What we know:
By secondary structure, this protein is mostly helical. The chain has seven helices and no strands. It folds into two domains: about 1-30; about 35-180, Invertase/pectin methylesterase inhibitor family protein (Butyryl-CoA Dehydrogenase, subunit A, domain 3). The N and C termini lie far apart (about 60 Å).
Amino acid sequence: MGFHNHAMVxxxxxxxxxLSLAPxxxxxxxxxxxxxxxxxxxxxxxxxxxxxxxxxxxGNLKGKARGISILNAxxxxxxxxxxxxxxxVAKLSKSASKEEKQALSSCKESFGSAxxxxxxxxxxxxxxxxxxLDSELSAVITFVSNCNDAYGxxxxxSPLAKVDNQLIHLGSNCLAIAEQIRL
Length: 183
């Protein structure tokens, strides 16, 4: 009987050890503690343009880093970039050819629509309307892409291509952040 007790104890130790080493087991594996200071990095890591996200959110964050404040900061960065693009359109229009002015007019309209969509996205956050939020943020990417398309159709490569790509990256990050937060 002593042999059976030792065998049973040994078997029990093996089972407990195997269970405690199972993936995801809280008994042995320490859980990673989420530190509030790392929330920006944690959220931005799940976007396609991580470095853009970290830099733009950090530069535009108002208040404590929370999911919604991080999304608002990225939307603010996108709106700021879009307003700068509008200023660049106005500057380019002064010396543009007729064809270029036509393309720039299309870009001006597209950037204006993008700003409206970003404003509507902010309203959707306040209303906790995820469907509208997703639609408006997707529209931003479409509007910015339309500028590149219009310019390329008329005169060739756009002098706004770099700005457009930056705005598309910010818009993409906005969508990725929106998918992660709870409204």
